[in-house]
Give the backbone structure.
Amino acid sequence: MLAKCVIESLEEEEDNFVGLDKVIADLNGTGNYFLNVFNNKGVELGILRLRTGEIDTQLPHPVNEVYFVVEGKGFIEIKGKLKPVKRADFIFVPADVHHRFIVDNQDLVVIYFFPS
């Protein structure tokens, strides 16, 4: 992946925790719109932030994926159909399905989970 991973391995118990503020600060330093946070023990978790005018360029993934909208509102396009999303929504996207987020008038911050 293009973005670095905040925590590559979770060897120490204290490495199992990271605050959202730190993740956002790390994301700000990457120049990307997404950042992997955890990538181990069979789970990949990261954060995606799209600002107004940015385009989500992700491609379909070979595994099922779950998203959780942390803040903002916008849309997710799944198989060419737009569905509105807002804070506190969970979204399931099956493997190999084209999908992307579209920002409304404020930043859209989303956490993603999928098996690694």
Q: What stands out?
A: The chain has one domain: 5-115. The longest strand covers residues 43-50. Helices lie at 20-28.
